[in-house]
């Protein structure tokens, strides 16, 4: 986790966050100066940011919107008040409505970002300055500390070349907290085709099979918000195991980048998980990221103990071949 320290100081009316990264200051600066790179980490997992404007000059404004997994949204704006490339910058950060105007019941804060060389990489210190203790407490109560930590955990992938970051490392599992995990896998193929492989039943049946010896007996995927889906599997021949399946509802679709669904075991009343799939392409490779929210720690550990990640790696290996063959 890049974040090394978080200090809330009611007397100074500040919230300070320190993070360290294995990349030079100039590379860290570029991540904050490019809105397309900012979008990959500014919002915490499950709340990705979209910058709709970005005037990176003193006196200029940047506007962004973060979209939650259930269709929620939160918008903000930056007013750039100081820029010192590549050592840092300062903004006035405001919560805004759909019309871009500041929300009167939400606090504004002055934020300074300072980048400095550190131990072969770089250190970032972000300090948020508030007008009152009440404003500081309001923002902390909204979960900004945990949200910042989780957002910063995404920056390592941005600072590295995507293939350097993920190629050959298989399916990786990160435990973000008691109820959230992040699973990533790089596949060598274009995002459009990876999206189709996740959403078109005739393609899903070719790869989403788990370990050897299993077959997909039912696949009714949907990309329409509000519709339901069902996927079922069964062992083939003498393969041990009992048939099972999952079903759920489509909550959000942003083709070909993101899809959010619920998921529960067929024939049960729950518990359900929230599955947030996102796809990012760079240099012809696509990073698949699946953020899963569990109802509690016990459910998380029970499901992970089934060997789910190993089964996903077997499926992703098939997916990689499935997307390469049509292009060869």
Concise structural overview:
25% of the residues lie in helices and 40% in strands.
Write out key terms for the chains shown:
2 domains; ASHA1/2-like_C; START-like_dom_sf; alpha+beta; about 325 residues; 8-stranded antiparallel β-sheet; 16 strands; SRPBCC family protein; Alpha-D-Glucose-1,6-Bisphosphate, Chain A, domain 4
- Give the terminus-to-terminus CA distance: 39 Å
- The fold-level CATH name of the largest domain is Alpha-D-Glucose-1,6-Bisphosphate, Chain A, domain 4
| Coarse morphology | elongated
Supply Rg. 22 Å
Range of strand content? 35-45%
The helix/strand order is: EEHHEEEEEEHHHHEEHHEEEEEEHH
Q: pLDDT below 50 for ≥5 consecutive residues: which ranges?
A: none
For the sheet with most strands, the description reads: 8 strands, antiparallel
CATH class of the largest domain: Alpha Beta
Domain unit count = 2
Could you give the count of β-strands?
16
Main-sheet strand order equals 1-2-8-7-6-5-4-3
**Helix content range of the residues, please?**
25-40%
What is the residue-mean pLDDT, rounded to a whole number?
Answer: 93
